[in-house]
Design goal:
The complex is a heterodimer of chains A (about 280) and B (about 270). Chain A is built from seven helices and ten strands. Chain A is an alpha/beta fold. In chain A, helix 1 runs parallel beside helix 2. The longest helix of chain A has 14 residues. In chain B, about 35% of the residues lie in helices and about 20% in strands. Chain B has a six-stranded mixed β-sheet with strand order 10-6-9-7-8-13. At the A-B interface, strand 1, helix 1 and helix 7 of A face helix 6, helix 7 and strand 10 of B. Strand 1 of chain A pairs antiparallel with strand 10 of chain B.
Chain lengths: ~280, ~270
Amino acid sequence: MSSPVAAPASTDPGVAQTETLPPLGSRLWLYSNFDCNLACDYCCAGSSPSAPARRLPVEVARRACEELAGLGGQKILITGGEPFLDPDLVDLVAVAVPWAPVTILTNAMVLARGSRRRMLDALDPARVTMQVSLDSGTPDLHDRHRGQGSFDRARDGIALLGELGFRVTVAATVDEADTAEEAGLHALLDRDGIPPDDRLVRRVARQGFADHGLALNLDNVWPEPALTADGAWWHPVSITDPAMQVASSPLPLVTVLAVIRATLDDPDRDRGEALQAFRCT
Amino acid sequence: MAGTYRLGAVVYHPDVRRIWEDFGAWFADKGLALEPRYYDSYEEQVADLLAGRLETAWNTNLAHVQVMAATGNVDALAMRDTDRGWRSLLVAREDSGLRELSDLRGRRIGFGDADSPQAHIMPVHALRAKGFDPERDCIATRLDRDLGKHGDTGGAELAQLARVRAGELDASVVSSFTLDAVGRLGDSSGLREIWASPPFHHCCFTVVGDHEQHARFRELLLSMDIADPKLCEPMELEHVTRWLPFDPSGYGELVAAVEAGPVLVGRSDGSAA
C-alpha cells in the first residue's frame, strides 16, 4: 500500500481564515519561568522579581518539543518571566533546537556578565533568534512602564546580541494613548539596523498586571498553545486567566491540541466576532 | 443500592482522574456507585482485576489479551466507537522516494514503546507475517518513553515521527489513531503511508467472571449521550463519541502476536540495535 496522507482540511467554520493565523500545531510557546528582573506594569504574566520561578522542567520541554515536531510544528518560542533568569535555559534551548527554529523573548538587561553571559555564549546564534522588548524611541515611555534605566540597558543588550551574531527582533507594547511614540521607535530601529519585518508593535492586553487594554477570550483570539509548569493555555498572553487554561498538565501535547481543536469546533461557541491573531512575535 | 462497582483506570494523563470523577458523578445520579481506582501501569491494573479487587478494568487491547492469557473466564462489556479498526502504519516522508515495504529493506525504521500494541507488538508481528522481519530486514530502533502505559500517550510515536521528518529515520510506526491526530491537529501533508497492518480493535472494559452490576454498568455506559452537558467534556477527553457493545472480533491478531512470544526490536534508547 502506498498513498499520500491527505492534507488536513479546514474544520473551522466561523473562523476568519486569513494568512496571518498560524495553523494550530505550528507554533509552541514555552514559559521557561515566571521570575523577572523587572515588574512591568502591563506584564501579561504577572512576572516580577518576587514572583515564584515556577520553572518548566527540561524533560517536559523535551517531550513537548518532540511531540510538536512529530505533529509538523515549525516554531518554538521561549518566554517568561525573564528566560535568562532560568539557570536551565541552555538545556531548555538544547532540547528545542533539534526540532524547530527557536526564539527567546528577553528584556536583554541581564546578559552582559556573569552566569547569564555564559548562558548567552552557550547558545548558537545560527539557531536562536532573540526578541527584545523595547517600547519607544526614547527612555521616557519605556522606563515609565518597565523601570528607570531599563531603556538604556535594553539597548546595550540589543547591541551585545548583535555583536554576538544573533538575529535580533524587537517587540514593543504600546498603549492606544501612546501611539505617537511609534514613529520615534521606528526611527531608532532604522538607525540601529533592525529591519522593518523584525519589528512588532502590539497593544496592551488586559491580563496579568494590566488593568486596561484588549480583553482577550476563547471567542476572540486565535489559539497559540502555551505550556507552563502548571499546565497548558490557549495563548501566551492568557496564562494568568483560569478561563483560558486548556489542560492541567502540559503533556501530552496532543491532548492539549485536541482540547483546543474541540473548543474551536464547538457548535455552541460564540461566533459573534471572528478569531483574530494576537501577535507576540 | 448494591455495593460499589470498582473500575480500574490507568493514569496516562492527569485528566484521567477528572474523566472518571465526572463519569462517576453521572453514574451516581443513575444509581450506580462507581468507585474508580487509579493505576500507574496496566500490569498493576490487570493484577488487581485477576485478584478480584476490581469489577472491571478500562484496558488497552494488550491488557485485555493479557487477562485472556491468564484466565479463560474473561469477557468485556463495551468499547469506544474510536476503538474499532485501528491499524499500525509505516510512514515516511513524501519526498523520500520510499513507496512500498520492499523499499524499506536495510532502512532505519522507528518503533514506539516496547509495550505499545500499536507501535511495536502488532506491527512487528504483522510485518513478520508479510515476510519482513524488523530484526533482520531493517535497522530497527525503539523508543521506550512511557512503559507501563501501553503506548496510550502517543508520545513515542510522535517523537519517532519527528525523527522521520528530521531525516534521522527513514520511516516509523504510527497508529492510524495518532496519524489522524496529526492531520487534525498538525500537518501531515509531507508524509506518506508505506504500509498498513490488518485492522484491530483497541480498548475495552475487561471483566472476569460474573457480577450482578455488570449489566447495569454496561447499560448505562451505552446510554451515554455526548450532548449531555455532564458528559460532553469527559467523553471528549476520553476520545469517545459513543460507547459500543464489545466486539471480540478485533483481537485475534494481537492474541497471535502475544502467543508468538516476546517481541523486542531495537535498543531502548532509540538508537539502532
